[in-house]
Amino acid sequence: MSEALVTLAIGMIAGAVRVGTPYLFVSLGECITEKSGRVNLGLEGILVSGAMCGYAVSYLTQSAWIGVGCAAGVGLMLGLLHGLACSLPRVNDIAFGIALMLLGTGLAFFLGKPYIQPQAPQLPSLALGAWSGDPRWQSALAVNALFPIGIALALLLHWGLRSTALGLALRLVGDHEGTARALAYPVLKVRIAATAIGGAFAGVGGAYLSLSYPGSWSEGLSSGQGIMAVALVIFARWRPLGCLAAALLFGAAGALGPALQSIGVTWGYHLFNAVPYALTLGIMIASSRPRQTLAGTPGELSLTR
Q: What's the confidence (pLDDT) of residue 242?
């Protein structure tokens, strides 16, 4: 029994890292966007577009890192499109985000058909489990290189939002637009830049899906992770380090089914696979109480007003 519990724990730890990495990048990007007072529901389309572009460019150039860079560029452009469009009068960011989701996924499915079969170079892994003679730990701690980069970005954003002039400008624009305008901050430019940068982060998250885990391009690759990242940011209370913790939690939840299979629990496999979606639903219900404002909510965020 104890051996089974160790195997289950190792599987959950491995899943928290592997499954949680795309959540980390997408949620950090959405955190930046929502800190400016704008929400981007088109993250699913950006994630899928980044996955397709990253895989295609990696295959064509035989360089996974060039693929990641192109995925970030595609995410940046789609985020910029969202930021510019939502800066126009009477354009609703929720409605346009849904349109962007459909546009991004549709283009990715159409342009990505030639790349479903070919095998592209994959991102490297760091053998953090080399200290152990247990192959289970060695496999669980074979961490993709993007994961420590994501941790570094979370720490950098945590510091930047608290301690830099750019962080102050972003928070002021998202909390008090009138005050920001009175202090001559360029509100629209800040929001457009934040949305574009958030899109770039989501594009990198998509590249992780196609170039690391599961490591191939297909039309069912994302499974709604872009949409779930919006709930994840709310759960994290718009804090970068909270996004890191929530991404690991969601990753562990997503790995519950395979981890149970590894110890011989085969009943209810599809039910356990639904745990991340149930967790997302629970978070949205818990955060939707009337006449109650969540701690850390940006004052200008249309999603919570």
A: 94
Domain membership flag for residue 16: no
- Structural domain includes residue 279: yes
Domain assignment of residue 174, given as a range = 21-123+144-240+268-304
Residue 15 within a domain: no
Number of domains in the chain: 1
Three-state helix/strand/coil letters over the chain: CHHHHHHHHHHHHHHHHHHHHHHHHHHHHHHHHHHCCCCCCCHHHHHHHHHHHHHHHHHHHCCHHHHHHHHHHHHHHHHHHHHHHCCCCCCCHHHHHHHHHHHHHHHHHHHCHHHCCCCCCCCCEEECCCCCCCHHHHHHCEEECHHHHHHHHHHHHHHHHHHCHHHHHHHHHHHCHHHHHHCCCCHHHHHHHHHHHHHHHHHHHHHHHHHCCCCCCCCCCCCCHHHHHHHHHHHCCCCHHHHHHHHHHHHHHHCHHHHHHHCCCCCCHHHHHCHHHHHHHHHHHHCCCCCCCCCCCCCCCHHHC
Task: Quick: pLDDT tens for 125-163.
Answer: 898 887 777 787 888 888 999 999 999 999 999 999 999
